[in-house]
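User: I'm putting together a small comparison set for a docking exercise, and I want a reference complex before I start. The sequence is below, and the ligand is IPE. Could you produce the 3D structure with the ligand included, as structure tokens?
Assistant: Of course. I'll restate your input first, then give the structure tokens for the complex.
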Amino acid sequence: MDLVKLGGSVITDKGKVTTLRPTALRRLAAEIAASGRDVVVVHGAGSFGHIKARKHRLNEGYVDDGQLPAVSEVQRDVRTLDLAVVDALRKAGLRPVSLPPSAIARLSDGALRDLDIDVFRRYADLGFTPVTFGDVVLDDRRWFSICSGDLLMLALAQSLRPRSAIFVADVDGVYTADPKRVRAAKLLRAIGPANLAAVDVGGSTAHDVTGGLAGKLERMIAVARYADACLLVNGLKKGRLLAALRGKPVVGTRVRP
Ligand code: IPE
């Protein structure tokens, strides 16, 4: 069993509200299918979630009634994206089943309190491809919260102990600085608690309501504790996800616990 997170920055255009990147999505779905591995797919929300969630401060939980229509709308939008992911996986020949966190997860003060892992396990055992995604979910303390795909990756890794946990992003891996701004930024072949300080995490939070790069690195390192291999690869480059799933050498960053 392997866990794959399709980052919102790869399958959507993060700068344009509710905009899919259909070509990347189609290819990644085909790579998952071609691997022949049993995969549980988690996907981010990208521009189907972050833009409106940020505008209405949904990551802070309940602030005022004005947020409530936005909770409903963002849930609807992320499901629209999820349908596109499910369709792409079906066209690639898999049998995806969608498990929306709004229906099967509960948070408490932003931390995952409850997730019905057995549903994932059961569907996977029956030969289906479970799919879940970043969503707005009930929160015991805040009424509602954002449940990110990374939080789901951690909970799933803890319970399912995958062979590999692969984070698919729009960059080649983790760099010493933001490669989109800093020309001298260097790709790190491995990252872990030992060299975390080598990464300049500033300024990567533009549209992100779930913690930016610093939070992401922390959660990836946590996931790495429960998988034989944990990797970050570029999903915009053909064949990298497939190579990672096959356990072949690939350009990317290995994440160490
Ligand atoms: C965010 O999920 C969920 C919402 C904003 C509703 P993620 O944090 O996993 O999404 P990406 O991968 O960063 O887009």
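Residues 7-8, 44-46, 49-50, 53, 74, 78, 134-136, 146, 148-150, 208-210 surround IPE (CB under 6 Å). The longest strand covers residues 164-169.
User: Thanks, that's exactly what I needed.
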